Hints:
Blueprint: H1 2-52, H2 56-70, E1 73-78, E2 83-86, H3 99-105, E3 111-117, E4 122-124, E5 138-148, E6 151-161, H4 163-213, H5 228-277, H6 283-314, E7 322-325, H7 327-344, E8 348-353, E9 359-362, H8 363-380, E10 386-394, E11 397-404, H9 411-414, H10 426-431, H11 438-448, E12 452-458, E13 462-470
Parallel strand pairs: 8-10
Antiparallel strand pairs: 1-2, 1-6, 3-4, 3-5, 5-6, 7-9, 10-11, 11-13, 12-13
Amino acid sequence: MVMAFLLIIGLSFLLMxxxxxxxxxxxxFRERIRQDRAGLEKWxxxxxxxxxxxxxxxMNASVLQxxxxxxxxxxxxxxxxxxxxxxxGLLNGTRLSVPEVVSILVGGKQVDYGVHEESGELVSDxxxxxxxxxxxxxxxxxxxxxxxxxxxIGVLVLLSSVSEMMNSLYTLxxxxxxxxxxxxxxxxxxxxxxxxxxxxxxxxLTKGIQRMGRGDFxxxxxxxxxxxxxxxxxxxxxxxxxxxxxxxxxxxxxxxxSHELKTPLxxxxxxxESLIYQPDMEEGLRTEFLSDVNxxxxxxxxxxxxxxxxxxxxxxxxxxxxxxxxxSDVVEDAAHRLRMLADKKSQTLNLELHEMGEIYADKxxxxxxxxxxxxxxxxxxQEGGTITVTLTKQGREAQLTIEDNGPGIPEDNLxxxxxxxxxxxxxxxxxxxxxxxxxxxxxQMINLHSxxxxxxxxxxxxxxxxxxxxxxxx
Length: 474
């Protein structure tokens, strides 16, 4: 692009230089022609009578006077092209056959003009002189018809040197060419340097993209320079970082999912092999083994179901069956189902539900979220603990708060609680039958309803989950 731009600039400069040279040469020649014609026409009128009467004394006096006034060599020719008078006195009696004379005597012109080399070769009759001849001495030839009684009886020719003007034009042309070459050279060099500086970050960015295309999401590029190039580098690094994080999350997810599925499968394999290789096993022990296998199957089913839910949520393929509903009804139903478990642990389950209107949501999905959050609070709170569920209205949103006075979550773990398969206490999580996907599903479901879910906790003092859902809209 830079080279193409410089080429356009160079061609434009060359065209401009040629145009200026032409304009200047045309102007100089027009001025010269105008001056020569004006003087020749005046003297052609004055010498007409002396040429007609063949008064050599008057002709000689007029030619010499005109030559001095016009600043050049003057020739007086008759109708046959014969020179009657030469201000230099060298060509008297000879014939002059040049285009400027023939055009008047034969072509019917009144005046004519041309430029000749010293050798006599006609260079130009228009003033457009570009090709330097072998000889640098130039002569302009102006001619004007001598008319007497409406008849051309001769020609007055003015010869004057234009070498200085021609050489000035050639010098100008040469200088313009040199300037063009210098400017073009400087432009090409600076263009190459500039294009190298400009394209170097793009080259680095291209290599980074190629590395990423090969699966290396750790690729980063320097965020140097300014403007769009820096913004592109920043955008690439941001995208690369997100892809690397997503790739790590995916790998971790696959690893965790494999581990979660492998554990119940291994347990079932051991139990089933025991049943196979111990056909005389006691009936009570056999029943216990089969019950454990059934529990592991239920656990596998729960994990697969949760995984499918997350996959559908990630792919935006979860269809919400929305309807107008009271969130307080969902909370009361979940509390009713968990009351027996809370009583078994001598826990106090408090509900503080305030009237705040309807929400427009998928009741089954919201019930899944509320039950999961309340169940976690009951499971992970020590015996004799307290769980408080509060429902209030905050502006145009319903706020559901589930707070317990359990062991709390360490600060380092708070940012990970919504990650898939993450457990603060992995051993305790498996013992309680959790899959590690409940909070991840809860977050996805709340997001699908255009709401938010947050967690606040202090180790040793308890945990609080805060859910915000829009009122009367999805």
